[in-house]
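S.,

Sequence below, as promised.
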Amino acid sequence: MKRHATHRPRYSFDAMIGVGGIGSGMFFMLNGDQTLGREESRSGRILDKNDYCKLHIISHYVKALLGSRFQVLPVGKVGNDDVGKKLLTEMEEAGLCLDHVAVDKTRHTLFSVCFLYPDRSGGNMTTDDSACSTVDGEFVAKAEREFERFAGKGIALAAPEVPLSARAALLDLATRHRFFRVASLTSQELGDMRGFPILEKVDLLCINLDEARSALRGSVASDDPRAVVEQSVQLFATANPKILVSITHGKQGSFVWDGSAITHMAAPAVEVVSTAGAGDAFTSGLIAGIVGGLSLKEAQQLATLAGAYSVTSPDTIHKGLNRRQLLNLARQSGMSPAEKLLPLLEEEQ
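The prediction came back faster than expected:
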């Protein structure tokens, strides 16, 4: 791998302002493969892993990859409890600006319990009455001065785990102040069409293959992943002809639509400890690449490295992820990074 002269790559943007879930969770491994019954009691064990929510994960990784030159401003709420206090401390230590993260004294911090069977299948239960559930358009509007400050030089992130109305409000501010707008939607929001109205306010949609399939509502004619990608991209383009799309497919890699072609990229082989949070790490890599002046196809390389490195940790935030580690992973996997990606990876942190 050719070594480039050390210099500081110029960033195309100065800050990211995002809204989404801030919370925690736990993983419970059930004993026995049979499906849990309605009135059944089942033994198991709590797994030693830390779970985080989407806005926190993406914000952490974007900051880790872009460093002190790039500001990250999450917009959200935590509860007045030990979990919320712990999360605020971790976010502050990561260098995130917490000016627009409020403490709700009447509600708890968002919390979920993921239950797993021995084969690693399972489901999760998430509170719907947490502090995150009260994040609304009025609360998001309080951050407008930040949009004014970074007008034309910002990334907006609309992530799930807060009401769709709050994400729409953030995208409205981003549109008004000429931000590059990134959003994710859940399978339910795509399947019942509630999420489609915001697509006209989105520059880059980041979802996974199951979410893309949900958007097609059973109309896909094939189980072939590429067919799902092609048909879902066509569908999203009816809502927004200029939309860019990223669709992850686990260990099978990812697809991106850059407005003219679909590019598939395989995931490098790594020792997988947990896949939780990998899609959010991938989204972070795309954002960091776009900030670094990369095309979407070039940013897909950075995102692929970030997603692959993240699964080597049991936690949904891999605290060791940084540019140096991703450069090492690229070398180990035999990847040939794009010419514009290498300076970003090689920059001293």
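The two ends are 20 Å apart (CA to CA).

Coffee later?
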